[in-house]
Structures are given as structure tokens and as C-alpha cells.
Amino acid sequence: MNLDQKEWWDGFLTTENAVILDVRTEEEVANGIIPEAINIDIYKGQGFIYQVEELDKDKSYFVYCLAGGRSAQACGIMKQLGFEKVYNLVGGISQWEGPIEN
Description:
With 102 residues, this protein is of the alpha/beta class.
């Protein structure tokens, strides 16, 4: 499900057992990350799938990348793997106006 910035952030803040998932590369993450996010690089292919499969499928995942394309793809993969609560940040971190950690 695609959410705008406000819906995505409010959803994260008000959902119990919510996780922020950053699917960008290490180089991109070095430029800043949304607080509390875990990073699993979608470009790692099968490695991405292995790492995602270790996550708790009962939790809600708020997923982002740089512009929203890779995170939408990641949400699709996660749904195929049995995750039911995955939410894509439309526009990604490039349009993010919320908090960022370096």
C-alpha cells in the first residue's frame, strides 16, 4: 500500500510493533537515515530475500528508498513472502520532511 509522507509517518508512530525498513544501498544510507530504520539493500537480490525472510511477519513494515520505486518493489516481494502489513513511502527519502539521522 502506497502512503504519502504524513500517512506513512503517522502510521509508524501509532502502530504497535512497527518497523521502518530502508532498502537503499550502504552508500545512500551514509547520507542519512530515518530514525529507528533497519537497512536491507534490495540490490542484494537473493541476499535481500534471505534477510527479509528472517523478519517477523506479524509486524507492520514501513518501507522506503530514495524515490519510492525500490521500496514499492520491496513491498511487493514482502507480500509474496507472506508479509501482510507493508507500507511504501511515496516519494522516498528524497522528499522526506521528517527527522533524519546521519
